[in-house]
Write a structure and sequence with these properties.
alpha+beta; 4-stranded antiparallel sheet; 7-stranded antiparallel sheet
């Protein structure tokens, strides 16, 4: 994807997102750090991470009040899985695995529900709606799965204290 001013665009995933000045986008160095490229164990670069089949953050933004985050990550499924794995299957597996994972991280009252959302001009896109408590603070997440070529994209919308993930999803439009 590309970041120009306050607009993130990913032509492969066919999505774009314009954020106002109440949001801060991570810069390239912060994304590299998030992806583990800048750690001793990291090494290499984001492109080689992506080609090796690891999930890679393409965009990350945080609201200036710290109560919302938006992340776009992608994974190269390879030639074989790229043809056979669907966004729906991935979403189902995520909904099944996420509660246990979040509980490991100390979150409580974790629920994950399969759903479908209208997103960036597409109807009924597979998604997982998650709610939990993080030290008694309500936390909501909407994970939206998109498939493009041999890549699986996950748009993760997270909000604390109140569920505004649908409003956050509306910030995305289709690339024209």
């Amino acid at each position: 994807g590309a970041l120009t001013g306050g607009t993130y665009t990913n032509k492969t995933a066919r999505i774009t997102c314009k954020l106002d000045d109440s949001w801060l986008f991570y810069n390239e160095r912060q994304l590299e750090e998030l992806n583990g490229v800048l750690t001793e164990a990291g090494g290499g670069d984001v492109a080689s991470l992506a080609e090796s089949g690891k999930a890679v953050y393409d965009m990350y933004a945080v609201s200036t009040d710290g109560l919302m985050t938006i992340a776009v990550s992608f994974e190269n499924l390879g030639l074989l899985n790229g043809k056979t794995v669907t966004a729906q299957e991935t979403t189902e597996a995520t909904a099944e695995q996420l509660p246990a994972l979040w509980k490991e991280y100390g979150l409580t009252e974790v629920t994950a529900q399969l759903t479908a959302v209208d997103f960036a001009g597409q109807k009924s896109v597979p998604a997982v709606a998650v709610s939990a408590k993080n030290q008694d603070v309500p936390m909501y997440e909407l994970l939206i799965c998109l498939k493009a070529d041999n890549y699986l994209y996950t748009v993760t919308l997270c909000s604390f204290t109140e569920d505004v993930t649908a409003d956050m999803a509306a910030l995305f439009t289709a690339v024209q």
